[in-house]
Input
Amino acid sequence: MRTIEIFDTTLRDGEQSPGVNLSTSEKIEIALQLERLGVTRMEAGFAAASPGDLKSVQEIARRVKHASVVSLARSTMSDIDKAYEALKVAQNACIHVFIATSPIHREHKLRMSKEQVIERAVEAVKYAKKYMHEVEFSAEDAGRTEIAYLAEVVDAVIKAGATIINIPDTVGYMTPLEYGNIFRELKLRVPAVSNIKLSCHCHDDLGMAVANSLAAIEAGATQVEGTINGIGERAGNAALEEVALALATRKDIYQAITPLNLKEIARTSQLVSRLTGMIVPGNKAVVGANAYAHESGIHQDGVLKEATTYEIINPETVGFKSNRIVLGKHSGRHAFKEKLAELGYQLEAEQIDEAFVAFKALCDRKKDVSDDDLLALIDVKLFAAQQTYSLESVQLSYGNHSTPTASVHLVKNDGEVLTEAAIGNGSVDSIYKAIDRATGEEVTLTDYKIVSVTHGKDALGEVYVRLQQGSINVQGRGVSTDVLEASALAYIRAINKIIELRGQTLVTS
Ligand code: KIV
Ligand code: ZN
Output
């Protein structure tokens, strides 16, 4: 059996999903969960993109102990300097430099000749090597690059010291056979490839990212790159949980294992979905809510007699368990702390106290508190973005023949209390107009979704909003037993995030 290394880029390529903007604390929470999942490398961001990105990569580099932390860098000295500045505190780190190699990118984007591209790539790898041993080189749009030229680039950057070579299908254009053949050709044309790690990185524009990644693994790739839930630029990246389960379920074909702790997959998927606001479709392979549900009578009958009749993956393999309700208003601090540890949180005493107060407040509104309720509560309470404004109270007057009127009391982080009222087209609209007045922020609501965390009349409602202000797009999430309160909380969190991001110039890869 070969071991295929897992390079997670949820926090970099995944965060390039339209409208997704994670705060530093949200990125740290995802990074710590990726470490529990057991990824080999995690790309924490693109340090040169903005001071906020650099800070996030640095914080992750400080906290993560086992996985190698990676920062992306264009093939320029200043990008590589920033990547090093962010990564130098890490126990294990890797600088990931890239430059486009395809004719389309060379001619229209870079306006550089073949020779100039090679020269720049070699200089960049040599420069990054001064800082650290592990340097990954990506030939952007490798899929559409002439194979002879790609081999030349790969040979040159290996000679310059690259330890990992990544062959991205940047635009999701390849078919499995074609993509696998690139790896076969490189192994034939560049003997030095056998001394380095060879990585695949696929986008899903034609829905073939996972199939292409598996084809590359069959053809000799030793590392696979992707994101949790397949989030990412445009149609997204290869979904790592799908690749991992394909390898685990079809060991007979692939003869390969991964270092992942598969039982952490469900939790990681749910965390990424909650924090990015990118809801996992019910029919999504491996992690969708319906992936293990059997509707037809014939299927139900078969599964009851023998699960493997219609189930090729046991849901417990990826960490799905039935929602046992264990905590309620009589639960003490000790039981609460134990439960948090079981859910994977290692919190400081102060954080546990803060979460316990929120838990007790929830018990006053909800009889039974499930694991999902707790997860939703902890993320909002402890991993919220920098709080410029917080909600003190919201009041609403509504009648089906009258105009909804909302009044809100917000508290600013300097202690100032802001009170405003507004009328609107509906309850949520009036709340949002009152918040706009109180904060003075001009924002556009581009998306609004309500999801129920658990079932029942007292279920927690989760509201996701997306807001835009100029070029800044953010998502915010609010959780409450009352959807109007959850709506206000989500909106305020998104505004806080805009304030945190404002002023930072963003560059994307
Ligand atoms: O898809 C791509 O080409 C990338 C590179 C920057 C590695 O994400
Ligand atoms: Zn990519």
User: Anything to note?
Assistant: Residues 13, 168, 170, 201, 203, 237 surround zinc ion (ligand 2) (CB under 6 Å). The chain has a mean pLDDT of 92. The chain has four domains: 2-276, 292-319, 325-382, 389-508. The first strand starts at residue 2 and ends at 3.
